[in-house]
Structure formats: C-alpha cells, structure tokens
Specification:
This protein is of the alpha+beta class. The chain has a single domain, classed as Endonuclease/exonuclease/phosphatase (Deoxyribonuclease I, Chain A). Helices cover 18% and strands 27% of the residues. The chain has five helices and 16 strands. The strands form four sheets. A six-stranded mixed sheet has the order 5-6-4-1-16-15, with no helix packed on it. Strands 7-8-9-10-14-11 form a six-stranded mixed sheet. Helix 4 links the parallel strand 9 and strand 10. Helix 4 runs parallel beside helix 5. It starts with a strand and ends with a strand.
Length: 267
C-alpha cells in the first residue's frame, strides 16, 4: 500500500483549473492528476486546498478510480482545507475533533479502514509576533489529546500531513539562522517530541538519517534550486505499524507546489 501526503498550495492551480506560474512559465497543466496517474498511490492526502468544493469544476474533484473526501475552511474563503483521495472507500469518515475554533479551518480528516486509521492534518503556521503561535500550539495539544483517547481502542494509526515544524537540525538547511523563526522554535519542536513519546515514529527517518532532503522551500531567492529547504511534511506511524513499513521517501523532483510529496509504503 502506498500513501502519499502533499501540500499542494492551491487545488485549482495544481489541477490546471487556474493558471499557475513558475518563474516566467505560465501553464494550466493538471500536475496533480498527472502525478497520481504516474505514481498510482492507494491513498493521497492533500493539504492547503484553498477552495470550497463548489469552486472546483466537477471533473476535477476526483481522479478516475478514487473516492474523494474534502474538508474545506468554513470561516475564510480560499484558505486552508484538506482532501483525501482513496481507491478503497473507508469504513468511517470524520472531519472534526471537537474544538470549534479548529474544526472550522478545515485542517482535519480522519478515515478508518479495516486495518488502520489515517489522519490527514494541516497543522497551523505559527508567527512569533502574533497569537497564531498560541493557536498552533493549542491545536497540537487538542489533536494529541484526541489521539491519546483513540490509542485506548485503536493501535494502527498513521498521521500524515504538513506539520509546519522542522523537528531536528537535520530537518532544515539552515538551523542556526532559524532558531528564532516559527517552524523551528524550541516550543514547537517539543510538540513533535510529545508525539514521539506517544509512541509514533517518523517513518522517513527509519530509512534516511542524513540532512539535505526537504519537503518545502521558500518561493524567494531560488531556495528550491539551491535546496535551501525545510522538512515539515511527515508520515508518522504508530509503534504497532513499525514492522509493516516497507519504505518512506520524499520526492523533491515533483513540481506543482512549494512543497513536494512525501511517501509511505506499507507491506
């Protein structure tokens, strides 16, 4: 089974409904469906949809052969939002974890299958000069409380998505320069420590313990071309799934967003 997580930074642009631009090249190419056709994931989790469902043309709402599930932002147009495409229809679907201030931003999808439960999460960005950092940290806390309750009855859990935090120094190109930057603040990094203490494993680090592989790059200063990036997108798996992980890798060569896909393969 192949599970992909990808922050696409705008559904209408990555599917070609709207024009997208990279440097001086403007296209209306459907990069998302082309990627899915080539990679054939069993499940793909998307973050930062930036569109309500009615804003997406019907033929672009789901690739052929997949069931589609969206949770869009209800409090602000063109903001946040997540989606899941799955070849197999889940047994259960949930888009709320019970906190109104978080549920309205469209950051959460939970799908339950026979052998595991999968979360697609778009964790908030934090900014050191306003209350969004507190919002981000509280979101982590509320979600982890939800997970702790779930662990009492579910063992096999996967948490995929854009965490908006680089966990360790090897997870970004310039750690020393960013110690006071949100996304690498100690208080944020400790939240990922808490997830590890709950028994979750960063699947990518099971196979690669080197720096230099990132999942997000600033759109300024040709950061991607120079590989000045951050690894902030993850597929965390519960301890019970450790022996089922066949491979985990990142695809920085895949264009279409300022993020790239991160992949988890299970036996």
């Amino acid at each position: 089974m192949k599970i992909v997580s990808w922050n696409i930074n705008g559904y209408r642009a990555v599917t070609g409904q709207n024009e997208s631009k990279r440097f001086d090249v403007v296209t209306k190419e459907n990069k998302l469906f082309s990627y899915i056709s080539a990679e054939k994931p069993d499940i793909i989790c998307l973050q930062e949809i930036k569109a309500d469902l009615e804003q997406i043309t019907e033929e672009l709402r789901s690739p052929k052969g997949y069931n589609s599930y969206f949770h869009t932002c209800s409090v602000k147009k063109g903001y946040s939002g997540v989606a899941i495409f799955s070849k197999t229809e889940p047994l259960e679907l949930n888009n709320k974890f019970g906190k109104e201030k978080f549920d309205g931003e469209g950051r959460f999808l939970e799908v339950k299958f026979k052998d595991f439960t999968l979360f697609n999460i778009y964790f908030p960005k934090g900014y050191t000069d306003n209350d969004r950092l507190d919002y981000k940290l509280e979101f982590y806390d509320e979600f982890f409380r939800y997970i702790q309750k779930l662990l009492k009855k579910e063992k096999n859990i996967i948490i995929s998505g854009d965490y908006n935090t680089a966990h360790h120094e090897i997870d970004l190109a310039r750690p020393k320069e960013n110690v006071n930057t949100s996304g690498f603040l100690e208080v944020e990094r400790k939240k990922l420590d808490e997830l590890v203490k709950l028994g979750f494993i960063d699947s990518f680090r099971m196979f690669d313990n080197k720096n230099g592989t990132y999942s997000w790059w600033s759109q300024r200063g040709r950061a991607r071309e120079n590989n000045v990036g951050w690894r902030i997108d993850y597929n965390f798996v519960s301890q019970s799934l450790k022996d089922k992980v066949k491979n985990a890798y990142i695809q920085p060569h895949i264009l279409g967003s300022d993020h790239c896909p991160v992949v988890l393969e299970l036996k």
